[in-house]
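@channel anyone free to eyeball this complex?
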Amino acid sequence: MKILVCISHVPDTTAKINFTADNKEFVSQGVTYIINPYDEIALARAIELTDGGKGTVTAINIGDPSTEPTIRKALAIGATDAIRVNGNARDGYYVAKQIAAVAQKNNYDMILCGRESSDHNGSSVPSMIAEILGIPSIASAKKLDIEGPNATMEREIEGGKEIVSTAFPFVAGAAEGMAEPKIPNMRGIMSARTKPLTVIEPVEVPQLSKILSYDKPASRSAVKLIAAEDAGKLWEMIREEKKVI
Amino acid sequence: MSVLVYVENANGKFRKSTFELVSYGFALASKSGSSVIAISIGEVSSEELQKLAKYGASKILNANNEKLKTVNVQPYASVIAEAAKAEGSKVIVMPASFSGKGMAARLSVKLEAGLGENVVDIPDTSNGFVVKKGSYSGKAFAYVDITSDIKVISVVANSYKVIENVLTGNIQEFNPQLNDIDFKLTVKETIRASDKISLPDAELVVSAGRGMKGPENWGMIEELANILGAATACSKPVSDAGWRPHSEHVGQTGIAISPNLYVAIGISGAIQHLAGVSSSKVIVVVNKDAEAPFFKAADYGIVGDAFEVLPKLIEAAKMFKAGQN
Ligand SMILES: Cc1cc2nc3c(=O)[nH]c(=O)nc-3n(C[C@H](O)[C@H](O)[C@H](O)COP(=O)(O)OP(=O)(O)OC[C@H]3O[C@@H](n4cnc5c(N)ncnc54)[C@H](O)[C@@H]3O)c2cc1C
Ligand SMILES: Nc1ncnc2c1ncn2[C@@H]1O[C@H](COP(=O)(O)O)[C@@H](O)[C@H]1O
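replying in thread with the prediction:
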C-alpha cells in the first residue's frame, strides 16, 4: 500500500493573525507554524494502515524552503519519505495541480488530505486533486477502513453521516475521529534527519484568482452585562436592540 | 451570460438556505443585467421547483434521473458543469455545504474556473470580480479577485437574505450525459442525527459546553432551543465525551456557523471554539466565571450559574414567543 499524505504548513491554532500595514500580506514573523491539525490526523491514519511493513507513507507539501521543519515533523511522526514542491501555494487550484502531477507519476493507492486547511479554509484541495485524476473524493471522512479491494469511510454530511465505499485509488479529507494525532518520539525525531526529503520544481499552472487584501472582522462593542436575576429580560433586549428575533 | 445556481434539496424539499442562494444569485445577476438559472438534481416535485421562481430564478433545470437520486459529488459536479456549458453561464453559485464545496472544487477544475470558497457577501464587480471570503479560521477575511472567464463561488449560509423577486419561472427537464467513471463511490447508508433544524442553516443556535456537567442536563438546552425555534450545538469536549452527537460540534475542528443569534451556555470561549462561531451576528454568553474569555467576544453576557439562569431564560422565552403570536 502506497499512501500520499498532503501536509499544509499553517500558523498555530492559537496564533494571533496580523497583516502588513497595507493589508496585503500575512505577517509570519513571530508566528509558530504547525502541521495543519486535520493533516496530522490523515498522517496518523496513513501510518496505522501501513504499520508493520504493510506499505509506505509519503508526505508532500507545496511551499517554499521555510516549510521544511514542518515536513521534517511529518517524517518524525512516521512518514517514510517526503516531497516538497518548491512553489508558492497561492491557491487551492495551484496546490492541487502540483499534487496531482506528482500522483500521476506514482501509483498511490490513496491520497489523504485534511478536510480543511486552517489558513485558506478552502476545503477544496482534496476534491480538486480527485477531479484532476478522475477518481472519487470524500471531502470529510471521520473513519477509514480497508475491506478487501475497497475502502469504507464514514463521510460527514450536514446533520449526520454516510457510510460510503469505494475502490482504490481515491482522495479523502481526514476529519476528527479518523485517528488520534501521533506525537513524534525520540527515535522518530532522530531518524527524520536522514529520511529522504526530495525537492522538486513546480509545474506551470494558470492563475485563476488573486488575493488582493485581507481584513479582520470588526471587533464587537463591549459586552453588555445583564444581572443573573434579570436574565428574563434578555429576549426583549435582543429584539429591541438587534432585531434578530 | 447567466448566473447558474445549484439548488440543493433535502429529501425533495428546498431549505431556506437554498432560497437565500437563489436570492443571492438574483442580486448578482441583476448587477450585469443577466438572469438566474437554477439547476436541481434528484427528485423534486414541480410544485417545489416552482418555488424557486419566487426568488428570482427565470429558468429551472430539473435533472431527475434514477442514478442521481442520492447526492453524489462526482456525478453531480458533472451535471452542473454540463448545464453551465449548455447555458453559457459565467458564474456558478454553490452552497458552502460539505457536498457543495466538494462539487465547487470539481467544477473549478472541469471548467478551469477560479474558485471563491466560503463567500460571505455579494461580489464586488466594479473592478474585476472580488469576493470576500472567510480565512484564517474565522480570524480574518480575504478579498480575492477571480480573474478567469468562468467563476465558481460557494456561499456561506446566512450571508444573504431571502428576498422575493417573483418571476414566471420556466421548468425544463435536463437530461445530462452520465458517465460510469463518476459512479465508483457508493453510499451504503445515510444516518441523520435527527430531523431537527440543520445547524449550518439555522438562524438561531443554542449551544452548550462542559459547564452543563453531563448529558442528563441537556433537557433544558433542548427546551430553550425548541421554544426559540433554534438548532442545538455544543463544544468539542462535549461531543468527544459522547454527551452530544459529533454533528453538533462547532468550532475550528467542527463546523463553522454564522447564525443571527448564538447563545453559548457553560462554554469557556477557547480560541478554537470561537473560530467556528465568531461570525455570528449576535452572541450571548452565560457563564458562572466572570473571567471566561467568551465574554470578550460577546454582545450580551450573563454571569451566573447556568442551572439558575436557564429556567429564567426558558420562562422568559415562552412569554416572549407567546407575545409574538
Ligand atoms: C487543535 C484544536 C482544535 C480544537 N477544536 C475545537 C472546536 O472545534 N470546538 C471546540 O469547542 N473546542 C475545540 N478545541 C478545544 C478548546 O480548546 C477547548 O478545550 C474547548 O472549547 C472547551 O470546551 P468548553 O468550553 O465546553 O469546556 P471548558 O473549557 O471546560 O469550559 C466550561 C465553562 O463552563 C463554565 N461553567 C462551569 N459550570 C458552570 C455553570 N454551572 N454555569 C455556567 N457556567 C459554568 C466554566 O466557567 C467554563 O468557562 C480544540 C482544541 C485544539 C487544541
Ligand atoms: N500547500 C499545501 N501543501 C500540501 N498540501 C496542502 C497544501 N494546502 C492544502 N493542502 C492539503 O489540502 C487540504 C485542504 O486544504 P484547503 O483546500 O486549503 O482547505 C489540507 O488539509 C492539506 O491536506
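from a first look: The CA atoms of residues 50 and 78 of chain B lie 24 Å apart.
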